[in-house]
Amino acid sequence: MSETKTYAYFEGKFVPIEDAKVNIMTHAFLYGTAVFEGIRAYWNDKQEEMYIFRLREHIERLFDSMKILDLSLKYSIDELCKLAVELVKRNAPRTDTYIRPSAYKAAQRIGPGLHDNPSEFCMFTVPFGDYFHGAPGLKVQISSWRRVEDNAIPARGKIVGAYANTALAKTDAVRAGFDDCIVLSENGHVSEGSAMNLFMVRQGKLITTPVSANILEGITRASVMEIAEAEFGWKTEVREIDRSELYLADELFFSGTGAQVTPVIEVDRRRIGTGDVGAISAKIKDTYLQICRGEMPKYNRWLTPVYKGTKVGATRS
Ligand code: PMP
Known about the structure:
globular; 317 residues; D-amino Acid Aminotransferase, Chain A, domain 1; binds 4'-deoxy-4'-aminopyridoxal-5'-phosphate
């Protein structure tokens, strides 16, 4: 039997994943000073092709996160896109896959400063199925934890240290018997899910929380807004959402690379709408998944084909 190695890209070269190791004195490990992206690649069995979803937009957001955390790399956006394609090619998965690039502070020293602190880069891939194990609709709680504020750890950067906040909220929710949670900002308004953005359908309107609500500016969120308008003529209203509005919503759904589009059917043990997956959530979910798998050619500009293609994603408009 031939042995297939899994590779990572680590500090300038492709190495077997077991050799991609950081020293325990690395700044990012000591202080959470790394930024990352979570990118999905979708396997299309019929076309025998892997499509990376909105690769360029993810790498652009990585650069935005790097700016916030004072990281800089020797690679351009194009070069990192090409490295991601190359890594997937080398690992040659024929299943849905998660691509995880990280830029991190690599000094080996005590002291939290970002200055005089070199940046490094690594990336790995892992097989990645349904984040919620196939649950058609989620039961969530409002977390007692609050979302990190922009002046504490900016949520619009995908900063590793901030995921301690996510971890606290998610763990409590799961231990209390919920699938996930919705997190509020300090001002009491809704921010987002543990690692996904939130949409609400109420009084015939599709609504999502604003970028000023301490959310990560989700790439799936932007995709959902575009799909909703282009395919169904639903323009998304972007505004603050109160906790009590969630209880009165007709439909709720999460959006995110991991979550994709996942309906929420209960909040704090209160049924949302009819308690079943809503019609609008279902339509958006189906359309989104078709697009991701390359089944709606009109949206192929969002896809980077790995095995046969040469194109690297679309540019930010
Ligand atoms: N919020 C948080 C905190 C996240 O970690 C994620 C996942 N990246 C999202 C929202 C959704 O963002 P995206 O659609 O770009 O994956």
